[in-house]
């Protein structure tokens, strides 16, 4: 009897999506779209689904086929993502060429297209491939969201939706992996539903200090530019601290790949360049998540103040807190387009300080 493991163990809180995939694996259609918030482990689910499709035992998780799929080393599994912020037309055409090839070992070829929302203006070059793939090819598109301009792609796929994760789900997932319950609860709150971020925060001893720094900002603000500059420096230094944990994880991944190449007697480490490109993209995304989470903690301080002010019937206090939340929300939605983040943060802190104390 074949030993089996749960391929979806690291996809918590997605019982409906997992049930759909398990039911579909035996007779998959030509294209699926995994759609849902960042950090819900859609990429992990895509690899698990690919293992179910390619494994002769239906995804046992232990055989040689599954092990190669899980490490993205199976010849009939192709994982692609954009080199830059968006797919180039040449990249999409290459995907089309790969889709036409015959499987080398398994009955199917599975192509996972990460960050499918980055197809962008060149979607027509990809749409033809998606509409007319050979019967032996299965596409799995993974996206946080797809704009209305890409709805034609959505209509060609079976959509599997991944829901946002609550702090309780993330905390439970961490506890199952050995975290102490109180620490897990704090990490889950800071991770804002993002499992990748939660797993990194477990190994990040400085995250609580960074969180406390953000929630202390309302009591430290004034209308002085020097104060705003100091707070901006503290926040950006905290982002560097947060990325350090991610960089350590990247170093471990590179070392493992180099060790694997050495064990196989290879002089050249296959895939190292692509791995380093992946790491650069992940660092950029993680910086965005870190700052967004901090801004969320700051906004919660002012929302709590709104509740207190409303209960005390203090109109001035309520107005200041409401304006602060509006400012932070606007900044959160636009800051990533600002080429000078320190100046943008200084401006935000100056504007918040000009409102006067919210406490």
Rg calc: 23 Å
Order of helices and strands: HEHHEHEHEHEHHHHHHHH
Helix tally equals: 14
How widely separated are the two ends?
Answer: 65 Å
Bin the helical content: 55-70%
Please outline the major beta sheet. Answer: 5 strands, parallel
Number of strands: 5
What share of the residues does DSSP label as strand, in percent? Answer: 5-15%
- SS content category: alpha/beta
Any low-confidence stretches, pLDDT <50, length ≥5?
none
The number of domains: 2
Task: Give the strand line-up of the largest sheet.
Answer: 2-3-4-1-5
The dominant shape is elongated
Mean pLDDT value: 88
Key structural traits:
single chain; 359 residues; five-stranded parallel sheet; Rossmann fold; 14 helices; alpha/beta
List the helices and strands and how they pair.
Layout: H1 15-24, E1 31-35, H2 42-54, H3 64-70, E2 77-80, H4 89-100, E3 109-113, H5 123-131, E4 137-143, H6 151-155, E5 158-161, H7 167-176, H8 181-191, H9 195-202, H10 207-220, H11 225-263, H12 272-311, H13 315-334, H14 341-354
Parallel strand pairs: 1-4, 1-5, 2-3, 3-4
Helix pairs in contact: 2-3, 4-5, 7-8, 8-9, 10-11, 10-12, 11-12, 11-14, 12-13, 13-14
Protein described:
- By secondary structure, the protein is of the alpha/beta class.
- The protein has two domains: 15-164, Rossmann fold; 203-354, no CATH class.
- The protein has 14 helices and five strands.
- The protein has helices at 15-24, 42-54, 64-70, 89-100, 123-131, 151-155, 167-176, 181-191, 195-202, 207-220, 225-263, 272-311, 315-334, 341-354; strands at 31-35, 77-80, 109-113, 137-143, 158-161.
- A five-stranded parallel β-sheet has the order 2-3-4-1-5, with helices on both faces.
- α4 (89-100) links the parallel β2 (77-80) and β3.
- α7 (167-176) crosses α8 and α10 crosses α12 (272-311).
- The radius of gyration is 23 Å and the shape is elongated.
- The N and C termini lie far apart (65 Å).
- The relative contact order is 0.10.
- The mean pLDDT is 88.
């Amino acid at each position: 009897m074949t030993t089996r493991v749960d391929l979806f163990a690291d996809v918590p809180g997605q019982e409906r999506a997992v049930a759909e995939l398990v039911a579909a694996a035996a007779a998959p259609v030509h294209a699926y779209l995994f759609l849902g918030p960042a950090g819900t482990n859609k990429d992990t689910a895509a690899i698990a689904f690919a293992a179910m499709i390619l494994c002769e035992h239906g995804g046992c998780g232990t055989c040689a086929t599954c092990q190669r799929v899980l490490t993205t080393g199976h010849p009939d599994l192709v994982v692609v993502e954009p080199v830059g912020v968006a797919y180039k037309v040449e990249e999409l055409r290459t995907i089309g060429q790969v889709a036409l090839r015959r499987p080398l070992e398994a009955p199917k070829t599975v192509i996972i297209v990460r960050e499918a929302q980055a197809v962008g203006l060149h979607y027509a070059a990809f749409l033809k491939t998606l509409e007319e793939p050979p019967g032996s090819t299965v596409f799995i598109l993974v996206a946080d969201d797809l704009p209305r301009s890409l709805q034609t792609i959505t209509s060609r796929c079976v959509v599997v939706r991944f829901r946002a994760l609550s702090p309780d789900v993330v905390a439970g997932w961490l506890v199952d992996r050995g975290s102490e319950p109180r620490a897990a609860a704090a990490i889950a709150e800071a991770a804002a539903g993002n499992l990748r971020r939660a797993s990194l925060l477990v190994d990040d001893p400085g995250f609580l200090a960074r969180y406390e720094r953000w929630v202390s900002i309302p009591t430290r603000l004034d209308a002085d530019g020097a104060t705003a500059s100091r707070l901006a420096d503290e926040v950006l230094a905290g982002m560097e601290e947060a990325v350090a944990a991610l960089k350590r994880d990247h170093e471990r991944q590179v070392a493992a790949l180099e060790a694997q190449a050495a064990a196989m007697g290879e002089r050249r480490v296959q895939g190292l360049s692509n791995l380093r490109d992946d790491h650069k993209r992940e660092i950029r995304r993680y910086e965005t998540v870190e700052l967004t989470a901090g801004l969320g903690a700051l906004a919660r301080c002012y929302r709590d103040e709104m509740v207190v002010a409303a209960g005390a019937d203090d109109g001035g206090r309520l107005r200041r807190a409401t304006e602060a939340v509006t400012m932070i929300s606007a900044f959160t939605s636009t800051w990533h387009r600002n080429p000078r983040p320190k100046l943008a943060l200084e401006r935000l802190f100056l504007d918040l300080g000009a409102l006067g104390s919210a406490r």
